[in-house]
Amino acid sequence: MIGLSWNCRGLGSPRAVNALKGIINVENPHFVFLSETKLKNKERLEHCMGEGKRMRGGLIFLWSEHVNLNPRSYSKNHIDMIMTANDKNWRVTGIRQSNDPWFCFGDFNAILSATEKQGGNNKSQREIDAFRDVVEFCGFREITYIGHPFTWSNGRGGDENVQERLDRAMATDEWIDMYSSSSIHHLPKRKSDHLPIPVKISKAIDGNTQHKRRRSFRFKKMWL
Predict the structure, then answer these.
(1) Bridge partners of residue 185, in order along the sequence
(2) What is the average pLDDT across 82-96?
(3) Residue 204: beta bridge partners?
(4) What is the spatial distance between Cα 142 and Cα 172, in angstroms, rounded to a whole number?
(5) Where is the signal peptide, in residue numbers (predicted)?
(6) Which sign does the torsion angle of CA 127, 103, 93, 3 carry?
(7) Dihedral pair phi/psi, residue 69, rounded to 5°
(8) Are strands 183-186 and 117-118 parallel, antiparallel or unpaired?
(9) Which of 90, 152, 207, 222 is the most exposed place for a label (fewest CB within 10 A)?
(10) Using one digit for the tens of pLDDT, what is the confidence trace for 37-52?
(11) pTM for the whole thing?
(12) Torsion angle of alpha carbons 41, 78, 26, 52, nearest 10°?
């Protein structure tokens, strides 16, 4: 199975559409995600590929009759689909990076470095790298926290205890500039195996933007 992504920078001319058709003919993909199409409708793409088309803003998802794709959610910055292949479902998401200030938090079920896990088997470096790649693609900086370094535990004692930092809050530089006095606390464990992480969102105080930005954290691969 082959997927194709292309930021095409506009498909408003026959030349651009022919270029897309040429790529599809050579690569023979099963599904295609296009961003910055600058199209208001998908009529110009009717003969590009197969039966399936999903359009949102400047994003378009195309797929052939040989795959089973169903829309899950979409916005001006993403199209999320459910793929059914070999009797199994998995998600495929096309993303265009947003220019809006962006704050993101919750249970990511992933870690940014081996030091964010204690006990149990080591997390594979491939999984760690994949999560870091997403964080870097989105332009996120990690907001500094106060409290216990791990947010999840398997609840066991002794050598069987495993703890990881699965919950976090991150934001883009633009958001951090707007709310540079924000703070995060890892509260003590309650009934869940995850710690609550309240985030106090506050604007800069007395021009303190630069100071707060230095306290935010961006992971760099070179540190490994």
Answers:
(1) 146
(2) 87
(3) none
(4) 9
(5) none
(6) negative
(7) -120, 135
(8) unpaired
(9) 222
(10) 877 655 444 444 444 4
(11) 0.67
(12) -50
Q: Is residue 61 a contact partner of residue 35, using CB atoms and an 8 Å limit?
A: no
* C-alpha of 98 from chain center: 11
Q: How confident is the model at residue 10 (pLDDT cuts 50, 70, 90)?
A: confident
- To which residue do tokens 């464990």 refer? 189
CA angle 189, 186, 221 (to 5 degrees): 125
* Residue found under tokens 């869940």: 192
C-alpha span between 159 and 204 (Å, rounded):
44
d(CA 140, CA 134): 9
224: Cα within 13 Å, side-chain hemisphere: 11
What secondary structure, in 3-state letters, does the chain show?
CCEEEEECCCCCCHHHHHHHHHHHHHHCCCEEEEECCCCCCCHHHCCCCCCEEEEECCEEEEECCCCEEEEEEEECCEEEEEEEECCEEEEEEEECCCCCCCEEEEECCCCCCHHHEECCCCCCHHHHHHHHHHHHHHCCEECCEEECCCCEECCCCHHHCCEECCEEEEECHHHHHHCCCCEEEECCCCCCCECCCCEECCCCCCCCHHHHHHHCECCCHHHC
Distance of alpha carbon 59 from alpha carbon 72, whole angstroms? 15
